[in-house]
Amino acid sequence: MHLSLPKLPPFPAHHPLLNQSLAVLREYLPSPAPVLGAIDQRIPMPVKQLAAEAPLNRLFAEAMAEGEFDDFEGRRIRLELNGGQPGITLGFWSGRLRVVNGPGEATIRGSLSAFRTLAERRQDPDQLFFQRRLVIEGDTELGLALKNLLDGLEWDVSFQSILFPAA
């Protein structure tokens, strides 16, 4: 006996019900940081490198080819959620972004929602820092240089584009 579910019509990416449901989930679900931190500590570095390096290098390929990242050669910046875990340290060597172990010369710290807002470009990055939703520690000049670079580049990492990539 074979059971099959009925075919449902495609759900449009900009459906009002989807947007409202996501807003409610963002507002009331607890922070995933403790769970992500526990998972992060158990993932071997080669797996993190495999998962993060290729997408980041594709995302910023044009800017790297134009030399926009050259000032970051040999430098390390850590991005981490409030509380220290999870986090990722990125370095730039030989024209490529790399995931590395250890601390960064600068650390940019904030909530998951602040990083998502930054990545989706829903708010001016300066506002995120002035409101202390994102904080730079360590070499602040390096952290500000990265913030300014990202602010000046054309890139798109939206929640919608991840869930519903263009065909």
TrEMBL record:
Q: Which GO terms describe its biological process?
A: ubiquinone biosynthetic process
Q: Could you tell me the superkingdom of the organism this chain comes from?
A: Bacteria
Q: Where would I find the SCP2 domain in this sequence? A: 57-151
Which SUPFAM superfamilies did the record assign?
Answer: SCP-like
Q: Which InterPro entries match?
A: SCP2_sterol-bd_dom, SCP2_sterol-bd_dom_sf, UbiT
**This protein's record includes keyword Disulfide bond:** no
Pfam families from the xrefs?
SCP2
Q: In which pathway does it act?
A: Cofactor biosynthesis; ubiquinone biosynthesis
Instruction: Decide whether keyword RNA-binding is in the record.
Output: no
> Which UniProt keywords are present, listed alphabetically?
Ubiquinone biosynthesis
* Function per UniProt: Required for O(2)-independent ubiquinone (coenzyme Q) biosynthesis. Likely functions as an accessory factor.
Q: What family does this chain come from, according to its entry? A: Belongs to the UbiT family.
What is the protein name stated in its UniProt record?
Ubiquinone biosynthesis accessory factor UbiT
Source lineage: Bacteria, Pseudomonadati, Pseudomonadota, Gammaproteobacteria, Pseudomonadales
